[in-house]
Design goal:
Layout lengths: L1 H19 L16 H12 L7 H14 L3 E5 L2 H11 L7 E5 L5 H8 L3 E5 L10 H11 E4 L2 E4 L5 E8 L8 H10 L3 E5 L7 E2 L2 E2 L6 E5 L12 E5 L2 H11 L23 H11 L2 H19 L5 E3 L6 E2 L5 E5 L4 H13 L5 E2 L19 H7 L2 E4 L10
Helix pairs in contact: 1-11, 2-9, 3-9, 4-5
Length: 394
Amino acid sequence: MKNKKIVNNIIQVFKKIKKKNKLKGHTPLHEPIFFGSEVLNLKKCIQSTFVSTNGKFIIKFEKLLKNFTKAKYVVPVVNGTSALHLALISLNVSRNHEVLMASLNFVASANATRYLGAIPHFIDSEENTFGIDSLKLEEYLNKNSVVKNNMCINKKTKRIIKAIIITHIFGHPSKVDKIIKIAKKFKLKVIEDASEGLGSYFNGKHVGTFADIGTMSFNGNKIITTGGGGAILTNNINIAKAIKHLSSTAKLPHRWEYNYDMIGYNYRLPNLNAALGCAQFNSIHKFIKAKRKLYLSYEKYFKNFQEAYIKKEPSKCISNYWFQTLVLRKANINLRNVILRELNKIGLQARPVWTLNHKLKHFSKFPKMDLSQAEILEKKIINIPSSANLSLFK
């Protein structure tokens, strides 16, 4: 009966939101917004005939990303997963190396790690940021690893723990300063997965620019979109050169000959996609402002709510609020599932957080710490409609 009352209370709030804002039919979880210059840019790109991996829009898109994030070097690629793959290669992650990553995470980090024959090693998350629990991480590494010859060795598996991937979940920055400090102590390379974090800042610095390498995604559901697309950010010129070479099939420069010096990847972003991204960048500040306004609208409805709250950006952070999140105050997967069903039934698309990576059959055999907090969060998190065009909520 108590669960039924909670569900009813939450659904009544969302029905009120829907009625007051005249939301009819299906309201997507997240959809892109196009203001018109996208069509003009795409037309220009087509007319130029440079629609593949060369063209002025790629150059412009790189510059826009550099100026916005303050990263010294940017390499646009076809998606966020390819960015992670190249990042791992450039940091010399290889077969049987272990890579630390949150289990509460999009599957791309684990997939990219397995592309190299490396081993995902799952770690726990915290409720404050939804990111890696830095205190638990340090305690775990102190107990379960040893640093020898400038390498972190897993005491149990005897494998090298080579790197850690920090993911900024739903656009909310993780405690990147503390995690990087731990990584230095244990001689770990660091990748920041800022796929969801364009426009998010920790201590005034853009996410994706703290670590050895940062990665981004511009999928259709991101803050801005290139259709499909991603990017690598780095302040290291050697890493930037290596990644650009790898992403371009490792082709040696020549006016007409096709020679290669290593195995490369055809991961460069097409000019056509970059044209879309350049137009989207014209509205980036509008999108982020709208996202933050949408958070305030939701927060107003749930401010004094007993059973759930709307996720707020962590302290010292400015979040882009990519995904708005309703968080149950008590873990209850049955309650979560009923709320998800009822929200979708009334036409408001909602989703749970991703299935924890260590629960996926093909990753279940890999090493992991105690993941109790991630398992609690899995039972509490509900993503709700988050498109920037909903910012006019009353």
